[in-house]
Design a protein that fits this description.
This protein has 556 residues and is of the alpha/beta class. It contains 15 helices and 21 strands. The protein has three domains: 61 residues, Ubiquitin-like (UB roll), CATH 3.10.20; 155 residues, Threonyl-trna Synthetase, Chain A, domain 2 (Threonyl-tRNA Synthetase, Chain A, domain 2), CATH 3.30.980.10; 320 residues, Rossmann fold. The strands form six sheets. It has a five-stranded mixed beta sheet with strand order 2-1-7-4-5. The protein has a five-stranded parallel beta sheet with strand order 16-19-15-20-21.
């Protein structure tokens, strides 16, 4: 008699007996729950696996659809592979670079920005639809890395060759879609037939690949123009190309050659130059009678605080006297904090701030009056007053730093000409390879994990557990207003992920395997493994990265 063993399905909290060797796809066929949307992948003992994964021992299994972050990532990766194959089928030798997320889609360049016609884009979209209709499987293979390199040599995918040659992995997993091999960082769907919803548009010198959203999976996302955001990305992409570093493999080679110090110096100089330019623009407007208030906004771990301090220094070189107010000090008492849909305090809400008190103090300052500034006591959950007073003099310029800085509802009584708005975010411009971009949210999450562990005694598990809530708050309260900015500052540093690797790996490795956050920790560890480490010793004490790593000369 064949011996069976149990697997536990988290979707319906039920155990099932299996013989062993069944794939997740086969197991899903006899489960007694209605999944609604098709499963794209699954969590096996909290780690994301493709549906071809075979089970040989007792496991906890959770099937994942597009409404889950892991499912959405799987959907987008699969869609990108379909795009890459369609281009290869129609235009052999054409280079596709999937650069970054913008306007609710993914901005792509063909032949490094060669202009494309509507006819070309339509042909690519039509071929993608044909590939989807054929329901071709995404076939995974695991081979010695050198064998995979040889395969990519035949396809002239030099970006992937460089990555694999510097990643120091003995074995590599790649996928085939028909006659095309490709490498993707993470799980893919079982076949092209699972990827039914998308759009493809000509967009700002490239193309925009538009997937659905997790909350409306039945239609492509509505494209929202983000010209300023795209401009900030392009500025840094051009810089990366000039210095010859577009992908992780390029940077790894530079590290091997001993060029890490030069990378740090050049990236830090670019930051300083950009901050100086913003300061000059503000100063000019101030002299002309405007820009009395600088509003600095950005999502979590974007480096707003250090940016504010460095901007203050540059403003002082322009003979202005900046004074700073943190919006965090105007939080309402904790018991008055709005509640989100999960019944938890919504600290990202605009209405977590005492808008009435804030605007009253702001108006008094602009009228030349003196105010007493509050300090929010995060342990007690209330505002306190410690005798800190402020009055604006003629040469003073006021800096307001907080996530809601660009929301017009924050300062409705202040005329626009008096405001200068800066949006700060870590717009990661280096990619793993041509078809695998690095999400800006991963960059920020790693920064936050390191900072929370170092300064707040918070585990990576706790930070990851809260991250989805933080992201929902950003989507609602920050991102809709980013195009209101007068200037955008990209706080990412070309080298930072290679530096953070040494800090993040032990913190992420401490996440227990039996908790839901393990899957995300494992994904981030796998991602960091592509980078050769860079020592932090050459990073200056004024670097924005010091806000997270420690060693800053600024007081926070």
């Amino acid at each position: 008699m064949e011996k069976k063993f149990p697997v536990f399905c988290k979707n319906n909290n039920t155990s099932y007996s299996i013989c062993g060797g069944e794939s997740l796809h086969e197991i899903s066929r006899f489960l007694t729950f209605n999944p609604g949307l098709p499963a794209l992948c699954a969590k096996v003992n909290n780690k994301t696996e493709e549906l071809d994964y075979r089970v040989f021992s007792p496991k906890d299994i959770e099937f994942i659809d597009i409404t889950h972050p892991s499912g959405m990532r799987t959907y987008v990766r699969s869609l990108c592979f379909i795009l890459a194959k369609a281009i290869r089928d129609l235009y052999p030798g054409m280079r596709l670079r999937i650069e970054h997320s913008v306007s609710r889609g993914y901005y792509c360049l063909l032949n490094d920005g060669e202009p494309q016609t509507d006819e070309t884009v339509y042909a690519i979209k039509r071929r993608m639809l044909e590939i989807i209709a054929e329901d071709i499987p995404f076939e995974p293979f695991k081979r010695h890395t050198q064998e995979v390199i040889d395969i990519f040599m035949e396809q002239k995918m030099n970006d992937k060759i460089t990555l694999l040659e510097t990643s120091r992995s003995l074995y590599t997993v790649y996928h085939k879609l028909g006659d095309m091999a490709d490498f993707y960082y993470g799980a893919l769907a079982p076949s092209t037939g699972y990827i039914q919803v998308f759009d493809l548009l000509r967009y700002n010198g490239g193309i925009l690949l538009v997937p659905p959203t997790s909350h409306e999976p039945e239609k492509p996302a509505e494209v929202i123009p983000q010209e300023k955001m795209l401009g900030a990305f392009k500025e840094y992409l051009n810089f990366n190309r000039i210095i010859g570093l577009s992908n992780v493999g390029d940077m790894n080679i530079a590290v091997q050659r001993g060029a890490a110090t030069d990378l740090i110096k050049v990236a830090e100089a670019l930051h300083e130059k950009k901050i100086s330019q913003i300061a000059d623009d503000i100063s000019q407007r101030f002299v002309e009678g405007g820009a009395k208030i600088i509003l600095i906004s950005g999502p979590s771990s974007s480096g707003k605080t250090t940016f504010s301090k460095r901007l203050s220094i540059q403003l002082m070189t322009n003979l202005l006297k900046p004074v700073t107010i943190s919006l965090d000090n105007y939080f309402v008492d904790r018991k008055q904090t709005p509640i989100d849909e999960n019944g938890e305090y919504d600290y990202e809400s605009l209405y977590a701030l005492d808008l009435e008190k804030f605007n009253s103090d702001l108006n008094l300052l602009l009228q030349g009056e003196e105010i007493e500034l509050p300090t929010f006591d995060f342990e007690k959950g209330c505002r306190v007053y410690k005798g800190k007073r402020m009055k604006l003099e003629k040469s003073n310029i006021l800096i307001l730093e907080g996530i809601h800085g660009l929301n017009p509802a924050l300062t409705p009584q202040i005329e626009d000409y008096m405001k200068y708005r800066v949006y700060v975010s870590a717009l990661t411009t280096i990619s793993i390879d041509d078809h695998n971009w690095i999400p800006t949210t991963d960059n920020r999450l790693l920064r936050r994990i390191i900072r929370d562990s170092k300064y707040r005694g918070t585990s990576a598990q706790s930070t990851i557990a809260r991250w989805n809530s933080v992201r929902r708050g950003e989507e609602k309260w920050i991102f809709p207003y980013q195009e209101n900015a007068d200037a955008m500052f990209n706080s990412s540093l070309l080298f930072e992920l290679a530096v953070m690797k040494r800090y993040a790996e032990p913190i992420l490795s401490a996440v227990p395997h039996d908790c839901p956050e393990y899957g995300e920790a494992h994904r981030l560890l796998k991602f960091l493994n592509y980078f050769l480490p860079i020592n932090e010793r050459e990073i200056p004490p004024t670097s924005l990265l010091r806000e997270f790593l420690g060693g800053s000369s600024f007081k926070y």
